[in-house]
Write a structure and sequence with these properties.
alpha/beta; globular; 439 residues; seven-stranded mixed beta sheet; 14 strands; five-stranded mixed beta sheet
């Protein structure tokens, strides 16, 4: 399962409203009917369910789960399912909104959706986890479907859990339906390249930035906060290119080595022992190397060229933004920078490659998986990688061009691009401009 760093305490209850408010700056730069923003202010549909689970000791526990479909004008809802004790409806609505924008930025034929269950999955046995996953899908089966709403893995969910969910949905509808869920095991209709897609997409964004800025990888330092699938993938790719990954962290804390780590050794030890250790491995032998320990707050404040928050939301806030020293921030997590921190970072001249672009590799390969499931034609990993790289480079350049044209940050430019594409869909359905024209 993906390991994520603990976030700072969330702000009170209006995360969805704050997220939608970020559209206001973008809306000033694009000719847009007022109905576009009005539609995006509301989720299309919301489902909250109770999920009863018979525990191994015979007791019954009830869990609360949510699925939100924010907008489906451009296609079926698309978005992950997360297991986390702090899952709330407000959080899920916010994440679904971001998925709407993310799919539009990547020009995917999807709208935005998200879901989750308020549970600590680490406290469950494997059998309890399967019961929870199957029961949750049974409860939302009428709400999802390959033409309606397509879930995927997210925080503390993985390919096996997606396989259980796909199987349970297929049982409910009485037909094998691999296209209802993405992020599945390969043997159950998953796509090659899905596990590393989020990290690879972020890596491509940085390679585009490298080309524009003229970086020399060997002279460029990187800190990665959050060492789950996405954090590991981007750390490995950057290390293989010669970048110096000098700090990484997981939920328990981090390690720092100014000369840089052998990332393959860190990943191997982390995945074998579930502990993040400063090591260097040769063959089957690993030995400790000198490194400083630091917490997840300290890793954010390191003087590095690239900072990659790859954990949970709101890790960079008004409280610590003034201490950020990175040259550029790549948001591999969803919403790792809050509104107040965004403004502070802009004043400090620290560019941010926003989440709705930087971490869109995952949903893009989920789209590829959905296409493969529906066609029955499965692609090689090389084909998936080439398609993902082409789409990431194209959309990164589109966002960067808009940022230059309008002289706005990349985040605002990404929302401009999303609004243009969503706006076209709204106009195609007809707005007051059409209905009052007398046509």
């Amino acid at each position: 399962m993906t390991v994520e760093s603990k976030p700072t305490p969330p702000k009170p209850e209006d995360a969805f409203e704050r997220a939608v408010a970020r559209l206001d700056q973008a809306a000033n730069h694009v000719e847009l009917h007022t109905e576009v923003i009005e539609r995006l202010k509301f989720a299309k549909s919301i489902l909250t369910v109770s999920v009863p689970v018979r525990m191994d000791d015979g007791s019954l526990r009830m869990f609360e789960g949510h699925r939100v479909r924010h907008n489906d004008l451009r296609g079926p809802g698309k978005g992950g399912l997360r297991y986390h004790p702090e899952v709330t409806l407000d959080e899920v609505k916010t994440l679904a909104f971001w998925m709407t924008c993310k799919c539009a930025v990547m020009d995917l034929p999807f709208g935005g959706a998200k879901g989750g269950v308020a549970v600590d999955p680490k406290s469950l046995s494997t059998r309890e986890l399967e019961r929870l996953s199957r029961e949750f899908v049974a409860r939302i089966a009428d709400f999802i479907g390959p033409e309606t709403d397509i879930p995927a893995p997210d925080v503390y969910t993985n390919a096996r859990i997606m396989g259980w969910m796909m199987d349970e949905y297929s049982t409910v509808v009485r037909r094998r339906t691999p296209g209802v869920i993405t992020g599945k095991p390969l043997s159950l209709g998953g796509s090659r390249g899905r596990d590393t897609a989020t990290g690879f997409g972020g890596y491509i964004c940085l390679k585009e930035w490298e080309q524009a800025e003229g970086w020399t990888p060997q002279d460029t330092t990187v800190a990665v906060q959050g060492f789950g699938n996405a954090g590991q993938a981007i750390a490995r790719l950057l290390h293989d290119d010669g970048y110096r990954v000098i700090a990484v962290s997981d939920s328990k804390g981090g390690i720092h080595q100014p000369e840089g780590f052998d990332v393959d050794s860190l990943i191997r030890t982390k995945n074998e022992t579930r502990e993040l250790k400063a090591v260097y491995c040769q063959g089957s032998l690993c030995e400790a190397v000198d490194a400083d320990t630091l917490d997840n707050e300290e890793i954010l404040k390191l003087d590095v060229d690239i900072l990659v928050p790859a954990a949970l939301s709101n890790v960079i806030s008004e409280a610590n933004a003034t201490d950020i020293k990175a040259g550029v921030i790549l948001e591999l997590a969803n919403g790792p920078i809050d509104d107040g921190a965004d403004a502070i970072l802009a004043k400090k001249g620290i560019p941010v490659i926003p989440d709705i672009l930087a971490n869109a590799g995952g949903v893009t390969v989920s789209y590829f998986e959905w296409v493969q499931n529906r066609s029955g034609d499965y692609w090689s990993e090389d084909e998936v990688t080439k398609r993902l790289e082409k789409r990431m480079r194209t959309q990164f350049q589109a966002v960067r061009d808009l940022a230059a044209e309008h002289e706005v940050p990349l985040r605002t430019a990404a929302y401009i691009l999303a609004l243009k594409r969503i706006g076209d869909a709204v106009e195609a359905m007809g707005t007051s401009r059409y209905f009052n024209s007398g046509t």
